[in-house]
Design brief:
single chain, mainly alpha, 10 helices
C-alpha cells in the first residue's frame, strides 16, 4: 500500500494557512492566543521550503533575485503594519531573512564543491555570521530565522537528517530563544500580555513591551517541535519534498 505523504505544494498551502492565523491575531482578532500559537508553526515550514528550494532550483541567482524583489515590494506595507510609518528601518520582513540565508548557503555550497575540509571549517563560521547578520540587520526572526534555514540545509548532508533537524531547532527555539510550552493558558491571553487591569493588552501592546525591553519577538514556541519527528528528514509524510520530482517550478516557485 502506498503511503500518503505531503508534497511541496501541500506544505506551501499549510504554511500559508498557519501564517494567516498568526496575522489575524496580530491585526483584526487580538486576544485569541491560540491563533498565534498555531501560526508560529508556519515559519519552520517556510524555512524548510527555502532550504529545499536552494537545493532543487535550476538557478540560485534567479531564485535569490525573485526573493529580493518581493522583499523590496513588501517593504513599505510591512513598515506600515509593523512600525506605523513608510520609513521604519528597525525591522525587516521575512523575505530579507531568507535572502540572507540563501547568500550563506551559496557560500557553503561553493566551499563544499571545492574542498570538504574547507566546507567543515566554514560551517561554524557561517552559522555565527548568519546569526550576527540577522541580528544586526534586524530581519524578521533575527539571527534565529537565518539559523533555522541553515539547519534544515545542513541536516540533509548528515545521516538520519530529521534527528539533526530536531536537535538544531530545539537548540534554536528552546535553548537560545526560550520557547513557550503549549499550555491551556496559551488559548487565552497571549503570554507576555500585562495582567488584567494593568494596561493595554493584545498583540500591539505585547510587541511594544518587547521592543521597549530591547527583546526580539518571542519566536517559535516549543510546540512547533511536534511537527518534526518522522517528517522533515526524508522520513515520514514530508519525505516527498526530497523526491526526484522536485523542480524550481514545484518547489522554489
Amino acid at each position: 500500500m502506498m503511503q500518503k505523504r505531503l508534497n511541496s505544494l501541500t506544505l506551501k498551502f499549510l504554511a500559508m494557512a498557519l501564517m494567516l492565523c498568526d496575522h489575524l491575531w496580530a491585526t483584526v482578532i487580538p486576544g485569541n492566543g491560540w491563533l498565534t500559537a498555531v501560526g508560529r508553526l508556519a515559519f519552520p515550514i517556510f524555512a524548510f521550503q527555502i532550504a529545499q528550494g536552494f537545493v532543487h532550483t535550476r538557478s540560485v541567482k534567479k531564485y535569490l533575485g525573485r526573493l529580493f524583489l518581493w522583499a523590496l515590494i513588501s517593504k513599505i506595507p510591512f513598515n506600515l503594519m509593523y512600525g506605523g510609518a513608510v520609513f521604519y528601518p528597525f525591522h525587516q520582513n521575512v523575505l530579507f531573512t531568507f535572502c540572507l540565508a540563501l547568500l550563506l548557503l551559496s557560500l557553503l555550497d561553493r566551499a563544499e564543491k571545492r574542498s570538504r575540509i574547507l566546507f567543515f571549517l566554514l560551517v561554524p563560521v557561517t552559522f555565527a555570521a548568519g546569526y550576527l547578520l540577522g541580528m544586526v540587520t534586524m530581519v524578521d526572526y533575527y539571527g534565529y530565522g537565518v539559523l533555522t534555514v541553515l539547519v534544515f540545509w545542513l541536516a540533509d548532508r548528515l545521516p538520519h537528517p530529521w534527528i539533526f533537524q530536531l536537535a538544531g531547532l530545539w537548540v534554536i527555539n528552546v535553548g537560545m530563544m526560550g520557547g513557550h510550552d503549549l499550555l491551556p493558558g496559551s488559548f487565552g491571553p497571549y503570554p507576555g500580555d500585562p495582567p488584567a487591569g494593568a494596561g493595554p493588552s493584545g498583540p500591539a501592546a505585547h510587541l511594544a513591551l518587547h521592543r521597549q525591553a530591547g527583546e526580539v519577538f518571542p519566536g517559535h514556541p516549543r510546540r512547533l517541535l511536534c511537527l518534526l519527528p518522522g517528517t522533515y528528514g526524508g522520513f515520514g509524510p514530508f519525505a516527498a519534498a526530497h523526491g526526484p520530482g522536485m523542480t524550481e517550478n514545484s518547489q522554489a516557485g
